[in-house]
Amino acid sequence: MEKRRLGRTDLPVSVLGFGGSEIGYEGASAATVARLLGQALDAGLTVVDTAECYERSEELIGAALGARRSECFIFTKCGHAGGWARPDWRPPALLASIERSLQRLRTDHVDLIQLHSCSERVLRRGEAIRALETARERGLARFIGYSGDGAAARFAVECGAFDTLQTSISIADQEALDLTLPLAAERDMGVIAKRPIANAAWMGTRRPSRGAYGYEYWRRLQRLDYDFMKGRDAVAVALRFTLSVSGVHTAIVGTARPGRFEDNAGHVARLLAPPEVAAIRARWAEASGRSWVGQT
Prior knowledge:
Blueprint: E1 3-5, E2 12-14, E3 16-19, H1 21-25, H2 30-42, E4 47-49, H3 57-65, E5 73-78, H4 91-105, E6 110-116, H5 120-125, H6 127-137, E7 141-147, H7 150-158, E8 164-168, H8 175-179, H9 181-186, E9 190-194, H10 215-224, H11 234-244, E10 250-254, H12 260-267, H13 274-288
Parallel strand pairs: 3-4, 3-10, 4-5, 5-6, 6-7, 7-8, 8-9, 9-10
Antiparallel strand pairs: 1-2
Helix pairs in contact: 2-3, 3-4, 4-6
């Protein structure tokens, strides 16, 4: 699998990373996660991305990697140790959360620790950023990053504190291509694309309920109505688009189904040609009116 240097870090990341949210929220078994990660590592994976709030994800990943820990880079996130609805950006809480993540992941450090979608106001106060810098100074993390979208992501790039930005980039989520990616490229920041296939929201047989996790992407894709969504290669085209965007280094795809990562690795054996990318961008500009914002 192709590897790219993650911006100014020295991490040679695979273009596809393993996302840990599904295994946590869907209650995957330890045996299933061991099989998933074994297949992914065998396919050339070097990135495993998770968060302290993804239920048992960190614990499952730590147990599954075992002796293969050195074969990949572990990224995790902090700020919601008490659950998504109970963020805590105080430095002592963040540092305690990071220490707990290391215990769960069975490692003495993570390769990247990220603030998990805190607001621009929190970033501007500076305390949360300094907590991550302290974690890096103590050797708990090699690099620090921000995961989020919109104005907060823009500030995270502009402030110069972070090595990486993880943000939403897909056929249904393209705000970042204009708002943050050009500046991130100027500053040689690593860019991690989250939700790169827009939750495959076009594949559902039923309309999601308004307010459901996948509803906004489903609504957008109904309007976008890309021709390729009707074909068998829709997921492949969606993944190829995200990885064909200039400045993207790796795309995080989550799954709890063995074999899926290998399928996705096959999808990105080639990328889209510039005219194909331009056509998707043009349709986005036409349908969105440039008013659709990045989805956290």
